[in-house]
Amino acid sequence: MTVSPTSTVDMALPGLAPFFDSDQLSELLGRPVRADRLRHKPGTSAVARLREDDGGISWLATYAPPVAVKLEKVFARAVASGLELGHVVLPDHPGHRLVTGPIELDHRLYKPLARFRRAGMERLFTDRVVWVLNYNPQRRVVFEVVRGEERLVCKVGTAVPYADGQLLSQLAASGVPVLETVEPMGLPSSRQLQYFTWFGTGDLSTVEQGNAGAASYAAGVALALLHAQPPAFGTHRWRAPAGSLVDLVEENSLLSPELAGRLERLRAGLEPLLRRPGRAALMHGDFSADQVLVDGSDIRLTDLERCTYGAGASDLGSFAAVEILHGAADGSLAKGSEVLSLPRTAAMLDGYSAGPTGATDSEVLAWTIFHLLSRLSNSFRSCSPTWRHDMANHLELMEDILW
């Protein structure tokens, strides 16, 4: 079962269509809302972040009737905890419904959040005791904790992060400006939970363009230092790009069948460029301007949850790809020849080249294409009604860079 090539509707999951129409979704739920951060299993289920006009954040889900039994535990937990679940039957689709609930009842984050419940903090999000900074359904929630004058950031995920407190301390001791974990008294702890002291005034993506050059350069220097560190893991947690390319092409072809031929041609052209991935390094794993915290001229690298060992140029391409997509969201889509001249990317590459490591333009461009491909479905996951058009435009950009 695939998504229909002519609409946003999964024919076996009619509850998915309202995710892409905020007016219809708001009418069904009886309040102004919009969905994003979609996780879709064709023919089976769809779960997304639900954003309220008043700043509230919760989750939205729809399941095909044969698997809707998975929600039974969620309903039981809601009753036991006194938390409210929204429940809307879809008109004209017997057996199909939309369900909404607080982050506390996210069925994959429920266990990682258990320590807060045992500490008497079971209504963190419902009562807005904390401010949610980021929420990725079924994966992670990040929130601010304020205790007197102390501001902390807490990250709770379904997986144990690769970069634990010990590794972050080792990197900091080696001169890499990373944000280290702290262990605050009186707050729950576990391997799936990390605390950080609040740093700076925002991340590099939010810094005004005229002031971003120095911080971007510093980010490049910091990344070069990270790449110069010895391997940190007993085994290499990195998959060869050829296998990932095949998976990405298959996933995006299922999502948008009309692009399948072009995607396969892109894979065939890109794979040879990634066979020799360049210098191996201890990588950030998800590097972008969003992962660089800024405080004046000082910066810290953060969100190393995907820290791994592999091609250093991959981090550079990831940074460029995200800047391209941010530009596209603002209405300006860079041409292939302009990629390495994007303001933040250019300054970051200058800083990186000044460090102990380096990468060629061809390596960076190849990995930029790879990371654009890995994010090709972002518009779909953002529940944009123009996602098909956006995918086609972004694929055209990748083709322009490659050829």
TrEMBL record:
It comes from the Bacteria. InterPro entries: Aminoglycoside_PTrfase, Kinase-like_dom_sf. Gene3D superfamilies: 3.90.1200.10. Residues 166-322 form the Aminoglycoside phosphotransferase domain. It holds the Pfam family APH. This is Phosphotransferase family protein.
